[in-house]
Amino acid sequence: MSTEPTKILLSEDEMPRQWYNIQADLPTPMPPPVGLDGTPIGPDALAQVFPMNLIEQEVSTERWIDIPEEILGILKLWRPSPLYRARRLEAALGTPAKIYYKNEGVSPAGSHKPNTAVAQAWYNREFGIKYLTTETGAGQWGSALAMSCKLIGIECKVFMVRISFDQKPFRKIMMKTWGAECIPSPSPLTAIGRKMLEEDPDTPGSLAIAISEALEQAVERDDTRYALGSVLNHVMLHQTIIGLEAKKQFDKIGRYPDIVIGCAGGGSNFAGISFPFICDKIHGKDVRVIATEPEACPTLTRGPYVYDSGDVAKMTPLLPMHSLGHRFIPPAIHAGGLRYHGMAPLVSHVKRIGLIEATALPQTECYEAALLFAHTEGFIPAPETSHAIAQTIREAKQAKEEGKEKVILMNWSGHGLMDLQGYDAYMSGRISDFPLPEEMLQRSLSSLEGHPQVPKL
Hints:
By secondary structure, the protein is α/β, with parallel strands linked by helices.
């Protein structure tokens, strides 16, 4: 019988007090954001959208950035999060691999998202901002920001992608419970929303549309700014507390992962678990890092590395990223948090320079993996998290075939208790796979015409 605990815990005193900024260690600098003419933009170009204290983090190349005490105090409501050994899953797979998962579902909102939501709300309040607008796909981010704004003391308005608004009614109730206004997107409240509804009254919506609506309302008032739950550098920064904790937890048991896995939509939970380990890889450590996405929205695996806008109205600067095209309307898969056309520039960059791998999985395989996880470990995963689980199972089976005792770490990014309609649809045979058709991808990529080219490595 192993003496290793099921849960590897840290005390509050052991919680990281700084965020890790991977930009300090990149072997090749990331291309800058640019305007439509290809000219690099400066921090001032973002000032209508974000407070300057967050813009400073966005452009920083400092390796370590201190976490303010008030933010630490709120994070301690659920942090440090536990690292679990998935022994029952290992036994069910008959694998020699040792599987560990970082449980981010213990936050009040049920996912990793509050790690940055609390920070963003705090920095906005410190800058004098009274209102935040945002978008949300599956509702995880909207719930996290609603909670964080209430704890910090500012107001919140959330534009929720219409298909998720309809599929996940309890998420909007969570947001309302925390005092936020939740609006299905596209909506008649904004010019871009009205335009999209005119083009297609039955559109399921997209994160790119919801972002445009939130941005449009944010720039109308001086006391209002916009908050983004993924993609941007400062969001990746705030999430690194996940991986930093995990490294300390592995130190406690004298292990180190051979493989680190996270699901990837915009990139935040993947960056959070992986960037501290990618730092080790940059400095010579042998570790594989895998980002896993839906085959219906295969940004890293089939999207070209280009300059593209983060939203459908092209209100954001052009960012260097893997993209399916800002006009991409993703299929209505149940992993709503992974239905974004672009990937975080930092995640895209580490993929481009060969520091990570990427896979795209069918959603039926992911639901099957989620059920096996629930049957063995008890926790019901979010549909987004199921992609990381499915990839972990693939790697564990590969370890069995090779007869190798690998250590696998995955980010269990959130629970699925608000996503049970998706489970019901899968168990009732109403979920099918949707490999993105090439003609649909090429039609969406045509929106990139006229954009400047990303410099070659």
